[in-house]
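pipeline/complex-builder :: batch 7 item 3
reading input block
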Amino acid sequence: MENITLNVKGMSCGHCVNAVETNVGELAGVKEVKVHLSEGKVDVEFDPSLVSVDQIKETIDDQGYDVV
Ligand SMILES: [Cu+2]
């Protein structure tokens, strides 16, 4: 397992937290995802043999948020 923290812009409320946590959490290989709304950060624990950082970033992007 690997841990990354992504800086994400555009998350502003509980709906955003849910959208990111649910969609990233559904990716095969993602063990845990935690959004820190006030800091604009997303912690992800994942298995790099099953999912790439790019896939995780793309999934957040698809929800309408910017990974910086
Ligand atoms: Cu929101």
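note: The longest strand covers residues 2-9.
queue -> next item
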